[in-house]
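Pipeline run #58 for the internal structure catalog. This entry was flagged by the ingest filter as a single-chain record with no existing model, so it goes straight to prediction. Upstream metadata was stripped on purpose; only the residue string is passed forward. Reviewer on rotation: M.T. Logging verbosity set to normal.
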Amino acid sequence: MSIMSAIALYGVIWFMTMFLVLPFRMQTQGEAGEVVPGTPSSAPSDAQMMRKVKIVTVIATTAFVVIAGIILSGVITYDMIEQITRRS
């Protein structure tokens, strides 16, 4: 795996994890009872983005290490995937 492939893989894993973590523990302005004029009541009252970025980075780094380890060790190869997905 080249360095660019590793960076691309990490980026994909990080953003997928971010989209999964974003809705967790989100409280809307409507639920909090403090709707800022000009915003919808479904807007987050406190997104806690730095906390979520830290959580996502830890999860994504762990997942990247596992996936990169599998790829580099040869446990799963391209030929194996091709055999599984080959149409008869």
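catalog note: The chain has one domain: 3-85.
catalog note: Residues 3-85 form one domain.
status: ready for reviewer M.T.
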